[in-house]
Amino acid sequence: MRKEFKNMIFTPLPVLMIGTYDEHNVPNVMNAAWGGQIDANQFVISLSKHKTTDNLLLKKEFTLSFATAKTVNEADYFGIRSGKKIDKVAFAGFHHEKAPDVDAPVFEEFPLCLECRVLEMKPDGDGYLLYGEAIKTLADESILTDGKADLGKLGLIMFDSAMNVYRVIGEPCGKAFRIGLDWEKSRG
Ligand SMILES: Cc1cc2nc3c(=O)[nH]c(=O)nc-3n(C[C@H](O)[C@H](O)[C@H](O)COP(=O)(O)O)c2cc1C
Hints:
Elements: E1 13-14, E2 16-21, E3 27-32, E4 35-37, E5 42-47, H1 51-59, E6 61-66, H2 72-80, H3 88-92, E7 96-98, E8 105-107, E9 112-124, E10 127-139, E11 144-145, E12 148-149, E13 157-160, E14 165-168, H4 179-186
Antiparallel strand pairs: 1-13, 2-3, 2-6, 4-5, 5-10, 6-9, 7-8, 9-10, 11-12, 13-14
The chain binds flavin mononucleotide (FMN).
């Protein structure tokens, strides 16, 4: 027996942190779960109208960071309050500096960050589909292993829309493009 649900349960949803500057170069950050990679360096995020979308239309550049278990309270806060009403970054006490290659903030508290450009803000209903391109990935040395970005050190979280909770993404369980081959061989 399977229970039917009318709403789509698509998983895992990311907990993306979109970092932007406004016209006064005040940093802002918002939480977005409805996004995913569509090409080697490209992704799409479904956005309603926010302070963030005003900033994206203005600057055409942004950062995309990945929330962690350590920053889960702030990440949720960044999704329930608007930069139109409060300086969320200052309230959270987050540390930031301008990204090396784009006009957008990098937050010290988020160890993995993409420097991004807006490819298109495609009108979609009352909001936009943001097509973005990552021009560089910045990984803090705290999450490196042998010079590689080690997501196991990140404490990465996902958004579980079925239970409305955040979950920590867990341990590796197999080498991709490899264990399937080993398993195939073992079947004879
Ligand atoms: C878990 C979670 C996921 C969210 N995902 C999205 C999303 O994918 N798209 C969107 O437009 N808003 C999303 N939001 C809502 C925005 O983050 C929220 O409206 C925020 O206040 C916008 O901030 P800003 O006005 O400072 O840009 C999400 C909020 C939460 C808590």
